[in-house]
Amino acid sequence: MSEKVTILYYTLWILHPVLQTAIAGFMLRRGLFRQFKFFFAYILTQIVSFGIVFPAYVWRSYSYLFYLYWGTTAISVACGFLVIHEVFVDVFRPFHTLRDLGTVLFKWAGLVMLLVAGVVSVSNTSTQFGPLVQAIVTAQRCVRMIQVGMVLFLLFFAHYVGVSRRQHSFGIALGFGAFASTELILIASWVGHHLGGGPWMSIANMSAYNCSLFLWLGYVAVKRPARDLSTSLLQTHRWEQSLSDIHHPVPADSLIPMFEGMVDRALSRSHPTDVPAVPAEGTTGSVVGAVVRAAEGFAAAVRAGSKG
Asked: How far is C-alpha 222 from the chain's CA centre?
């Protein structure tokens, strides 16, 4: 590398821990490390990784650099996957059933990712790297694909779950998704011989990561509005209710909970503008009581008919 390219290379690399330290500081100041503990752990591991790998690179200790680099990369991949799950849990926090289903799917996705990485590392013997490095690279690309999918999900379905683009979870996912997209494009271009290796590919990759760090710094430095849970999300609540009904099915001979659920959903879907005047005190309770009594009578009649 020429002298100017070397200076640019080191500048972009040294900028990583500087921005990461600022992000960690703002997270500590605003208490965000409690809400996003895995993202905070990811930032700390990146700072420690720089403190280990950078001296080995400067001192030309390539034998130690190989193991240090791939060891810290494996830890970074694991933390990145946990951050995706953390963002998912934060997005679906008001919807407990959807959140539980997503947690189960993430566990299966992690298991499948490990199996794919293991199979690829064992079956691919054409590379000069060992099977462990192949497994780490495969897992890293799987995580990058999931990160891109997560940010696309939030871009297109944020209004369904009541997530604003100014919230921290959206900013974290956006930073990972933008960097993952750039890295995957660079890898695809390099594999397809559309882009040569050399320092410029590393410079482009580090520049993209610095952009993500600046994005995260902006999200954690500025106070973001709290999530508005009063927004009407009828379609998402229907998904939540449907999954709850599947997980906790109602017995066939119990009709009263079904009628109560129908009354609750009917009342929840009604808008204040549809009511011409404020009902008198106790009117709503009497209406619901009448419906429940009618449901009880209907259930008793059905049971009596089935016994006869």
From this structure: 21
